[in-house]
Amino acid sequence: MRTRHIRTPLPGPKAQALIARDAAVTSPSYPRDYPFAMSHGRGCEVWDVDGNRFLDFAAGIAVCSTGHCHPDVVAAIQSAAGKFLHISSDFWHEGQTRLAERVAAVAPMREPAMSFFGQSGTEAVEAALKLARYATGRSRFIGFLGGFHGRTMGSLAFTSSKYTQQRRFAPTMPGVTHVPYPNPYRPLFQGADQGKAVVDYIEQGIFRGNVPADEVAAVLVEPLQGEGGYLVPPDGFLERLRALCDRHGILLILDEVQTGIGRTGRMFACEHWRVQPDILTLAKGLGSGMPIGMMVARRQVMQAWPRGAHGNTFGGNPLCCAAALATLDLVEREYMGNAATVGAMFFERLQALQARHAEIGEVRGKGLFLAIELV
Fold this sequence. Notes:
The chain is α/β, with parallel strands linked by helices. Helix content is 34%, strand content 16%. It has 2 domains: 1-57, no CATH class; 74-327, Aspartate Aminotransferase, domain 2, CATH 3.40.640.10. It has helices at residues 13-23, 59-62, 71-81, 94-106, 121-136, 153-156, 194-206, 237-248, 299-302, 318-356; strands at residues 38-42, 45-48, 53-55, 113-118, 140-144, 176-179, 216-221, 251-255, 279-282, 293-298, 360-366, 369-374. Helix 3 packs antiparallel against helix 10 (318-356). The model has no long low-confidence stretch (mean pLDDT 97).
């Protein structure tokens, strides 16, 4: 691996020209905080249009789980493209079935799993919300402050990591009650066990005095919270949340769009605590950069809705399925173990930095899902 190589002032002249052209024809809603116009990428390296080379520590936008343009993924896409670019969801194809079988084989669920296919994380979450309402006959949900689950109107109702994502879009989907996500470093409750305190608050504060538990279809939560601060919940939190859902007949939806597919050193982050969801949402790293999302559910839950209850146009696209199958091969064979090993090394070295610098308040994470909190 090489280090960065800068040939021009940043942004370079070609980047400036492209950014100016783009501003005239593209929505200004994209964040785009940095004047970076990309040309191509290989592995963990990316080049801008002026030939400057950088290291990509963000894996695209947490999607390039095997690096940029891994040869195995590219070859799988090319092979699939020679047969079909698109297949209607009204029909069957081998790639989609193989991917559903592959995910079912590794899904951390208490019974066989079934999958619904989409193009993104937010679509996977929307499908999970619809299924939860359909399967339970209930309308309400519990979400978590600081969470990010997408930007379409259903998933946006659960997203509270940045106010700008909600501003001037209200009302979003009704029926969502937000509770704090446990943060031992910045506790909101008295006592040492913030995870227990949050679950007790849901049981005693929300269910008894605000939202009846028998009206709640599901609890939607990130097993490790991403945009909310890369928070690692205390041991016991997810287990208690699972038990709470079981007591009240509520479905547990784990959003593993960012944490899944090996990023934390396990295929799914919930496996660190051996917690089994009723519904799981996947996207981002699943396709090594290709637009694919999946909503995975226990068979008994998925079979609640009949043919025609939900669907889409591009879900199960053959190129995306081929990319996902190649990605899972690589993650299982190499990258999941690498995330655990390199993540442990990073964690240890970050803790060494913390010991020397008072500005680092906390080091936290699992695998390569890591953060430092500056104070």
